[in-house]
Specification:
The chain is built from five helices and 28 strands. It is mainly beta. The strands form three sheets. A nine-stranded antiparallel β-sheet has the order 14-13-12-11-19-18-17-16-15. Strand 26 and strand 27 form a beta hairpin. The longest helix is centred in the C-terminal third of the chain and has 11 residues. The chain is rod-shaped, with a radius of gyration of 32 Å. It starts with 12 loop residues before the first strand and ends with a strand.
Length: 398
């Protein structure tokens, strides 16, 4: 049994809807006064709060992480946490909060649950400091303005800002998306999404010659896309689409804690062949049931067998039925009623038959039968090998 290789994709960030609340309120509620006794700056709407802010100037709880918010010009707020670890140094809750001006002060709405928010007031702000208040309590730990996010945070934030994160269309997803390795390198595995939302998994295996080749699980599942949700299947797990642009797609797992990154690449030739096969026409005359009535075998220059196949004598061992369908499925039946399901492709005057679409795509264990002649009622097929060939004549089964 062949094992399909699946790469675990890792990125330099994690995403969480409630990260802003978890981080921010640990600063506001844990380090709050009993009343509004802030001795810092007064609220000032003429002094912009747009920019990067860090809670305190250091690691507050000794866990090696620093944290804060980014206030965006478009009225949204992003929460961030940075650990400087090699793997997943960042956690973001991208633009899950909001901010606005109310009279002489700024206000922020930070997500509490789906559709509900905490209302937070900017109790004081200047060029370098910002104090927040919640339920009449003002934080004694200020936010400090930073020139930029730590590490590669600014680049990551620009990536997120370049992405479409709602109102997805199937055209946003159509094409081939390759997964990425831990080092960000593009892998051979990925997914192909067509305009109808059909998903084909592209994998890699070692074939019988120990050569790495691509496999195609053609139309193995479908994208779910509606006004509220977009999910993409990948090796047994449905991932929610987080964001997409022309070159990259980010999806998250069920708990939102793991980000999978795919990059748009040229469609692999194996996938192009799969589409060519699947979209090719099956001739109308072929799409029926054919039963063998004559068999001929020529070995070199000698005809070793040439006879009609009868129902009640030894020739019956050569009997077979072929049931061709318009969706490229073939059911083969033997003399004892045994059946085998196959996939086929008509290429000019040749019928290629294999156990699966993947075998057909890669010409692996494929039978090749030449159409010698055909009519509405009769079909003659020939299979050749070195110096020899065999011919079956079929009649349309009534």
């Amino acid at each position: 049994m062949r094992e399909i290789k699946k790469n675990v994709i890792k990125t330099t960030m994690k995403l969480s809807y409630y990260l802003t609340v978890i981080l921010l309120f640990s600063g506001i509620l844990t380090f709050s006064s009993c009343g509004d006794d802030n001795n810092g700056p007064s609220p000032d709407v003429n002094n912009t709060i747009v920019g990067v802010w860090q809670i305190a100037g250091e690691d507050l709880n000794g866990d090696g992480a620093i944290q804060g918010i980014v206030v965006h010009e478009d009225g949204t707020v992003t929460g961030w946490l940075y650990t400087a670890s090699e793997q997943d140094p960042y956690q973001f809750s991208f633009k899950t909060g909001k901010w606005s001006v109310n009279g002489n002060h700024y206000e922020m709405q930070l997500p509490k649950s789906a559709g509900s928010y905490y209302q937070v007031t900017v109790a004081g702000n200047n060029d370098s400091l910002m104090y927040l208040a919640y339920n009449g309590k003002t934080s004694v730990v200020p936010f400090h303005r930073l020139a930029k996010l730590p590490g590669d945070g600014d680049a990551t934030l620009r990536l997120l800002e370049s992405m479409k994160m709602s109102n997805f269309k199937m055209s946003d997803l159509t094409g081939y998306w390759a997964c990425t390795g831990e080092d960000g390198s593009v892998q051979d595995d990925g997914i192909y999404i067509d305009q109808a939302g059909n998903v084909s998994l592209i994998g890699t295996i070692l074939d019988w010659a120990s050569s790495l080749r691509r496999t195609v699980q053609y139309h193995s599942d479908k994208v779910t896309l509606n006004a509220y949700l977009c999910t993409i299947p990948y090796y047994g797990t449905r991932y929610a689409l987080y964001g997409v642009n022309d070159t990259m797609m980010l999806v998250v797992d069920n708990d939102g804690g793991k980000v999978e990154k795919f990059v748009r690449q040229t469609v692999p030739q194996e996938m192009e062949r799969a589409e060519k096969i699947a979209n090719s026409n099956v001739p109308d005359w072929l799409g029926t049931t054919w039963e063998a009535v004559h068999y001929k075998n020529v070995n070199g220059s000698q005809t070793s067998e040439d006879f009609d196949i009868n129902e009640n004598d030894w020739t019956r061992q050569f009997y077979r039925e072929l049931v061709f369908s318009s969706d490229h499925q073939l059911k083969q039946k033997g003399r004892y009623g045994d059946t085998a399901d196959r996939t086929f492709y008509v290429d000019n005057d040749t019928i290629l038959i294999a156990e699966s679409m993947d075998d057909l795509i890669n010409n692996s264990a494929t039978e090749s039968w030449t159409i010698v002649s055909h009519s509405n009622d009769e079909l003659t097929l020939k299979k050749s090998w070195t110096g020899s060939y065999e011919i079956y004549t079929y009649k349309r089964k009534q």
